[in-house]
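A quick aside before the break. I want you to see a complete sequence-to-structure record at least once, exactly as it would be stored in a machine-readable document. Don't worry about memorizing anything.
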Amino acid sequence: MIFGYVGICYKEAPLALRGQVALPDSKKIELWERLSVIGLKQCVIVSTCNRSEIFYFSHSDAVTGEQVQSCYQDIFPNVSFGDCCKKKEGSEAVSYLFRVAAGLESLVVGEDQILGQVKDAHEFCMKLGATKKVFNKLFRDAVTTSKEIKTITKISQQPLSISYIGVKLLKEKM
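That is the input. The structure line, written in C-alpha cells, reads:
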C-alpha cells in the first residue's frame, strides 16, 4: 500500500493559479469519480485559498502519483500547471499531512483554520465513501497530533491569519 500526496500550495503556485484550480464540492466529486475509475480506493481532497491537495491511499502499484496528478489536472483542461504540482509518497507524504494539519505548512505558521479545513475535507470524503478504516485513523491521528502540538507549543495562542496581520499592519501605519 502506498500513501501519497499530489497538489499545489502557495509555496509553488501563484494566487492566480490557485484560484483557477480550487476544488468546490462539485469538482471534488468529479475528481473522486475519475480517481475511482483508474482504481483508486481512498482519498481526501483538501481545497483552501492556499492549497488544492489530494491525499490518497493506493492499495497497489497500479495507481501511481502520476495518474492521480493527471486526473487532477484533467478536470481543469484550460489551465497550465507548469511545474507547480508536487507529489510525495510514503513517510514524506504522511509527514506533510501532519504538518499541514498542524498549520506548519500554512502561509501564517500555526494558523488554526487549516485544522478545521482538513477535518471538513476528511468528513466530506468519508461521506463520499472515499475513505476506509486505516485512512480514517491516519487523518484522526493527524488532527489529534495537531491539537497536541498547538497545546504544547502554544503556536496558535495569538490570533493569526493573513487578514489579521494585514489589519494590524494597517493600524500601525495609520
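Two observations worth writing down. The mean pLDDT is 89. The beta strands are 2-9, 42-48, 51-58, 86-89. We'll return to this after the break.
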